[in-house]
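Team,

Forwarding the record for the chain on the shared tracking sheet. I've put the sequence and predicted structure together so nobody has to dig through attachments.
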Amino acid sequence: MPYALDSQLLEALAEMRATGGGTRQPTARGDWKTLRERGDAGLAFAEAALPEVESVSRTDHFTTSHDGAEVLLRWYAPEGRDPSGSGPAAVYLHGGGMIAGSVALFDRWVAGYAAESGVPLLAVDYRRAPDHPHPTPVEDSHAGLAWLAENAEALGADPARIALMGDSAGGGLAAAAALLARDRGTPVAKQILIYPMLDDRTTEPDPALAPFVSFTYDENHTGWHALLGDAVGGPDVPGYAAPARAQDLTGLPPAYIEVGELDIFRDEDIEYAFRLAATGTSVELHVHPGCPHGFDRLAPHADVVRRSRADRLRVLTGF
């Protein structure tokens, strides 16, 4: 049977198109400026549609990255959380194809996770490519993780119960930061990878998926080229940049990975989960039928989105 979009997602998309939304022009390969402009605009629209979360306080901090630059960290603390300091916390890394997105554009999104789970999160405003290519984004991400590990007790969290969490490019950076943390001795208790961007070689269209993609193969190449330059797709890309390239996946924390079956990242995410499991690492993998990249932004009340949200909250609180 051929692929088909989830019926509730299809209905939501039809309603959006009927009111003049829901259509998105793909950007040409290599045009990172337009991709950033459209990506940030789309994220701003989605952010404005979310409710303000007044029950979660925000506090801005800064840490120093590998090159001496200061990186913004935003701490999201929900009301009524466990004051004993024994509860979990998570570092959140936003999506945006390596070139778009920011803490500000994901503010209500992250606050929603904190409010619904009762778990505090630290969002890292990592610097974006191509202005700041590899290794800056992953180094900024690890700097945020290291800062939280050092300050967890003062913030009322357990330093032994810190997760790395992210979506899309942020999911890829979470996986890369987990590799870096393993090799530097920074504790990580869980990886929560939401349709993560893991492999710079995913640039040739799959005809079966092409009609459904919301983040195209050309746009994926643009994002990876911004991060890696002309090394993209070549033999010398390190695992800290593209985690699918990592040769050694031993010693990593348990992972939760989810992806839609109509997402161009599907195969690389399944393969990464398989390789992690083959090392003896505990892996929970979900492949959601009928779902493209970013499906949870398309129709928040669709059944598949409710299920995936419940799973994320369960994992966020249960490690």
